[in-house]
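Tokens in:
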């Protein structure tokens, strides 16, 4: 892998808790800091294009993500995304040819102790380097086909879509 392109869209992975508001808001992308702290042995470039909870991502936002990824010469792409509409965005990226695109996120903010963010990012980095061209989701220690996965909101995890 020559370089990893990282496109950030917001989501829980980047959320910050504001005490004075008793509220969470999407903050700065966390993935660059995480990769630097881990001392990764590859070059990466972060393009932050959205800072939204994935419940608020629109079809126009998905088109922006698709166009951004398609316009870059980089073959290996990681997209950080909120988990609630990650599957829809992954499906919108399906027309992008000749790239390995992996979407990941977190069920708890990256800044929180015990967050799944670092584990999911590590899984996604391994996947983007070893899989062939296509679009994938890396969550809960597994690599998922976006056409065959769903988020089980009640259980707060991704699972095979029986439908």
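Residues out:
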């Amino acid at each position: 892998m020559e370089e990893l392109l990282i496109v950030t869209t917001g989501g829980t992975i980047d959320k910050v808790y504001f005490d004075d508001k008793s509220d969470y808001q999407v903050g700065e992308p966390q993935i660059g800091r995480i990769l630097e702290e881990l001392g990764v042995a590859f070059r990466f470039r972060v393009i932050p294009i959205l800072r939204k909870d994935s419940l608020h991502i629109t079809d126009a936002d998905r088109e922006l993500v698709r166009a951004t990824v398609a316009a870059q010469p980089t073959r290996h792409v990681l997209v950080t995304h909120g988990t609630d509409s990650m599957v829809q965005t992954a499906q919108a990226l399906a027309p992008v040819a000749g790239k390995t695109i992996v979407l990941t996120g977190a069920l708890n903010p990256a800044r929180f102790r015990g967050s799944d963010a670092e584990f999911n990012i590590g899984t996604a980095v391994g996947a983007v380097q070893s899989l062939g061209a296509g679009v994938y989701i890396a969550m809960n220690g597994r690599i998922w086909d976006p056409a065959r996965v769903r988020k089980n909101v009640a259980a707060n995890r991704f699972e095979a879509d029986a439908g």
